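The instructor's notes for this session suggest beginning with a concrete chain rather than abstract definitions. Hand out the sequence below and ask the class to guess, before any prediction is shown, which regions might be ordered.
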Amino acid sequence: MKMVHNIDLKKLAASCAISLGVGALSALASMPGMENYENAVKPPLSPPSWLFPIVWTLLFLLMGVSAHLVYTDRASQSSERVSALWVYGAQLAVNFFWPIIFFNLSAYLLAFFWIALLLTLIIVMTLKFYAINKTAGLLQIPYIIWVSFAAYLTFATFLVNM
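After discussion, reveal the predicted structure:
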């Protein structure tokens, strides 16, 4: 594929496909539990259901772009990139399981602790990305904000469904 402004479009597409693939597989795996959530009491500030796939798709795209920027950054040391990408992979894995815990198991308190772990990993990833490529780090700010809001929704869902 063609290079555009030093961006390898093939590698960028692969990076986005990885993050979007994780999100899509997680969504498919958690679909059976959506009825559980539809029947649960919703906390204040719960957004409409149609908003979630839109936001998550955008966030997974931003993750893919950021990971690509870090992966292809040759100004940083290889060990820094590897470390940042390991944290990226870890947060993707934790992200994958959160909807399964929340929707399929309706284990709202466990899901809250799980999303707290996810948020911690996202913050560490963002700091590591920022140290390598400022744009890559800044692109993760919406992810931090959304997962912070999701943590509120998770804990609030636990409280209103006790």
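Then share the key points. The chain has a mean pLDDT of 94. The helical segments are 9-30, 34-39, 51-71, 78-104, 108-132, 134-138, 141-160.
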